[in-house]
Amino acid sequence: MKFKELFPSARLLERILFVQVADLLGGRGYLDAQNLEQFQRGLRVLRKTDYANCAVGLSFRDVSYVSSHAIEEILDFQQKLQATGRRLLLYELPPKMKIVLGELGLDGVLDIYGLQGHVLKFFSPNGQTPGGAAGR
């Protein structure tokens, strides 16, 4: 599948490629074993996009459940992006996912933001964080 077929709502703003996880879920609000393969396919496509100089903003809006296997895929994806000098920015996470990531200590490993506006305000693609981490 092509990028725009997988991520019809994708947008490029300020060198950040914003995509919606919900685009991959076929109308289901759950990221679980039933659609994990489609999620993995989407992450592979994102890694290979022509947006090599851009960070990837991954929105979880309209997603109410994320399995532990999906979290593992997110961590793997982050490592692969970092190996190529790119960043993964997560935003609009479901409340339970925020709690789980915090309990696992992953909120200190992953770049997590509240809303897309927070990503644009507090993340700078040149590596400097414009307002500090306080508003994230």
Commentary on this structure:
- This protein is of the alpha/beta class and 136 residues long.
- The protein has helices at 3-6, 36-47, 68-83, 95-103, 116-122; strands at 11-13, 16-20, 30-31, 55-59, 65-66, 88-91, 111-113.
- The N and C termini lie far apart (34 Å).
In this structure, how is the largest beta sheet organized? 5 strands, mixed
- Please state the CA-atom Rg, rounded to the nearest Å: 14 Å
The global form is globular
**Number of DSSP-assigned strands:** 7
Terminal CA distance reads 34 Å
Roughly what percent helix? 25-40%
Low-pLDDT segments: 128-135
Topology:
Elements lengths: L2 H4 L4 E3 L2 E5 L9 E2 L4 H12 L7 E5 L5 E2 L1 H16 L4 E4 L3 H9 L7 E3 L2 H7 L14
Helix pairs in contact: 2-3
In short:
The protein has 136 residues and is of the alpha/beta class. The chain is built from 5 helices and 7 strands, in the order H-E-E-E-H-E-E-H-E-H-E-H.
